[in-house]
Design a protein that fits this description.
Chain A contains seven helices and no strands. With 142 residues, chain A is mostly helical. The chains are: A mainly alpha (142), B mainly alpha (191).
Chain lengths: 142, 191
């Protein structure tokens, strides 16, 4: 009995599968798209797309506050300390062969060498700030 | 996973590009309408359901995280909207219940179906599907035409696997019965 049922099921299934091979979805009425888009336009004009940052106001205050504090701490550190650290890194002619740079770039190398190291820190700081700014603006627009 | 074209269109809609939503409608409107009609079985109501479903999809697009296939997500909205429409209808006596079912000892065979021309098959199937109860046509279309697995149908309808299997079984039997009736009627009118 069970076998007969299974056979019937297989035949039905096969038959219906074959029938559905010719199936084509019904054509939606012409007015469907137009009416839907009218509703969408109406809603869009009533509720314009607003900028929704993923960081809410409270969190943003904390982040900005923390960032300002970090900057303040960084800039309050005596620049001479930074220079001292720089010198401790031993980045001089023994680490970088300034002679070969001189040969390659002529006066450019010697000019770069003569620049005070604090200038490099400022450039680096500005670049880091720009990077952080870009990162946060990206984050807010996700 | 949703196809990349869908994801691009969704991203564009989120940025306020309404033309992208129009493209989504173009792509899915016929299937959406067919599925809606599979439940409400009324062209005008199916159009209303499809419009509502697309509008709901537009409003909820921010909630679509891309974990499911977009079409599955959209079909779920269509299913829920169509079911709500059915429930909002005033109860009426269905002629399906009282329909006289012709008892045939023999089932329709592949041979009898093969005799019908392709164009005629489409008509017969469409007619038979429109006579199915509840959401049986919706489930049969997803299963046989969209070739979705029971698990995918489960995701669309929110019904349990066993419930879907029961509905598939019932739908299949009912479809066969309706096909018999239609073919019988056509044969009678031909004679």
């Amino acid at each position: 009995m069970k076998k007969t049922d299974k056979n019937n099921f297989d035949i039905n299934d096969k038959l219906i599968k074959e029938l559905f091979q010719d199936f084509i979805p019904e054509k939606a009425p012409e007015t469907l798209k137009q009416t839907t888009m009218n509703k969408v336009f109406k809603d869009w004009s009533e509720n314009p797309v607003v900028y929704k940052p993923i960081i809410n106001k409270t969190n943003r205050l904390w982040i900005v506050g923390g960032f300002i504090a970090l900057l303040a701490i960084t800039f309050l550190i005596d620049a001479s300390l930074l220079i001292e650290y720089w010198n401790k890194l031993n980045i001089d002619s023994s680490t970088i062969d300034f002679n070969s740079i001189n040969k390659s770039f002529g006066n450019v190398g010697s000019t770069l060498m003569s620049l005070p190291s604090i200038l490099y820190f400022i450039i680096l700081g500005v670049m880091v700030l720009l990077g952080i700014d870009r990162f946060f603006s990206r984050l807010a627009n996700i | 996973m949703s196809d990349t074209k869908d994801i691009e269109l969704i991203k564009a809609v989120r940025t306020g590009d309404l033309a992208a939503f129009s493209q989504i409608i173009d792509k899915y409107q016929h299937m959406a309408f067919t599925l809606a009609n599979g439940i409400v079985k009324n062209t005008q109501e199916a159009e209303e359901v499809t419009q509502d479903a697309f509008f709901k999809a537009y409003k909820a697009l921010d909630k679509f995280k891309g974990a499911a296939v977009f079409s599955t997500w959209l079909y779920r909205i269509i299913y829920n909207t169509a079911i709500s429409k059915l429930r909002s209808r005033k109860p009426e006596t269905s002629d399906l219940e009282s329909k006289e079912v012709i008892q045939h000892d023999s089932l329709i065979t592949e041979d009898s179906i093969n005799r019908i021309e392709s164009q005629e098959r489409k008509k017969v199937l469409k007619k038979a599907l429109s006579r199915l109860k509840d959401d049986d046509a919706f489930i049969l279309i997803l299963y046989y035409y969209k070739e979705q697995a029971v698990e995918e149908i489960e995701e669309v309808t929110g019904l349990s696997k066993s419930n879907i299997k029961v509905k598939l079984h019932r739908g299949r039997k009912q479809l066969q019965k309706e096909l018999q009736l239609i073919l019988h009627d056509e044969l009678k009118s031909f004679i």
